[in-house]
Known about the structure:
The chain has helices spanning 3-15, 18-28, 33-37, 45-59, 63-75, 101-115, 171-182, 197-204, 225-228, 230-251, 275-278, 295-305, 314-322; strands at 84-90, 119-125, 130-137, 150-155, 160-164, 186-194, 261-268, 284-291, 326-331, 338-341. By secondary structure, it is of the alpha+beta class. The radius of gyration is 25 Å and the shape is globular.
Amino acid sequence: MDDIAQSLLKRLVRRIPRQMLQPTLEKWGRLQKAQLESMDFTLSKYALTEKLLSICEENDWSTKHITELELLSYIIDNPNVGMWHAYQLLDPEDDAHTVELMQFKEQFKSHLTELIQNVSIKIKKHTDEAVWIRLAWGESFSQPNHFKPTYVVHYLQSPYVFMTSLKSKHRPLLDQALVLATRCQSIKDANLSGRKLIAIRDLLMKQYEQVFPSKFPRHIPENNENARNPLIEQEQSALSSNRLQMACEAFGGGKLPEIQSAVYRLKTKFRGHAKNMAQRKEPFKCVVKFSSTNLLESLRSCASSGIASTPVTPLLSSIPLKGRNYFVITDNGPGSSQTLHQQK
Length: 344
């Protein structure tokens, strides 16, 4: 093993919780049964690392094998490694739906290595049909940096891609390789990001109880603890039921994706009687950010409990409806109301 492989292995073992180390190595599948049984997982992390290094030396494993362990047996099961950003592939060709895993892998590697020579690419397909890509970028005269990799997740036959730890200078290269490998024409920012990959995936791909706006009220089962509280029912049962109804119509009645933030960027002109302010030509700008461990659940709870007014403003209900958590609020024109503007 070279120094890079040894350093990667040491760092990886430090990151994996002790109770998960044995299952992770078993899932990796490269250790023989006798080698796995020779490891005493009650020992310190240092002793386990040294033992694992000696086994890797015996098998002559390289950086390639260690990055496989990192991606397949650790990162895929622990996807909350950073800030994930969602993107959408646009204008697929007629045969785009026929692209299979092997075609995608060959095309992606071929196109990316044509654009940049020093790049390490590892691609694995997960059990949920997600294609995971690990990229280590190098410079013109330097080898790929395996300590700061980029991770990409793409669901074949879907237009969505999720990326984390990607530098801006590498974005055009990755975009072009993805577009060509998926047989699409372009890719755009979906204006959705978060630290929980599964949450932003579920929100964008509608893998949860969806919201269907309607002008006609519909019955939604009361699954809120406050709505079942006898004291609240006695004092204001009608108001409580109505608030719950409108909250569920805005966000859904079931379990919601654990989105942790939403950002609203405001650009508007002053509307008032102060002359010095009304003469200002430049728009007023500000940024409002909502944060929570589960933002959609918090907003639904605020609306159903009466903390927030109902019916729910489109500024908030647009999060599940549009599958985004970044918005720009601008003016339609002189004397008009504000509108949510989707950036292209």
